[in-house]
Amino acid sequence: MPAKTADRRGLLIILSSPSGAGKSTLAKRLREWDSSIRFSVSATTREPRPGEVDGKDYHFLTEEAFKSSVEEGEMLEHARVFGNYYGSPRAAVQDAIDAGQDVLFDIDWQGAQQISNSPLNQHTLSIFLLPPSITELHRRLQDRGQDGADVIADRMRKSWDEISHWDAYDFVLVNDNLDDTEQKLRAILTAARLRRTQQPSITSHVRQLQTEFEATQ
Ligand code: ADP
Ligand code: 5GP
To answer: Which CATH number does 12-40+100-215 carry?
Structure first.
């Protein structure tokens, strides 16, 4: 009998890119493809944008509450990005991966590095998205229509800082055509789920094969 899906370990899927390259769009598409994928809802000290819902888009915390949460060891990783604090609450992630569910993180290179240096590294899949060009990145930030000119200029200035960490990731995709990138992400995820370390129940299957094999000798 092949290993059952429920017997697998959950993956930590990290998506990083400069702001505007397509992380949220692709994360949403992956979730539509497979609704069992959980999003890691980050905590942040930044102000909510119009339409953002506390507990769904982010856990919006005061700086004091954020820092105390870090001191209590409640964050799997945390970093200062664009002048605000961001972090991934540990408990929700651990519960999900123990239950065999994949968790998707939209976090920056500092967070990716911290998770990669943690014991969870063996269950981590990290993917970096590059824009087709810097001009297109700018256009996407403008077309998204969420940020003012100052915020966009700041994100563009910081884009190289994020891009310069591209080579620390397992996979790198140029997000040119959205459908193509989505197909590639699906393929990467499908393959990563088959890693030996993600399939704890495969050991008992191999034992069964051994028993059966020995019985035929
Ligand atoms: P991020 O989460 O990385 O900041 P978003 O997912 O919000 O980026 O994408 C920024 C903008 O670019 C959005 O308006 C989105 O619809 C658009 N976008 C994302 N991927 C593509 C793509 N491959 N081609 C064209 N537009 C894209
Ligand atoms: P935004 O303010 O546009 O939602 O996010 C700004 C940046 O912060 C993005 O690059 C995003 O990936 C990053 N980010 C969001 N949540 C976290 C987090 O929990 N940890 C880290 N390290 N970065 C985060």
So the answer is: 3.40.50.300
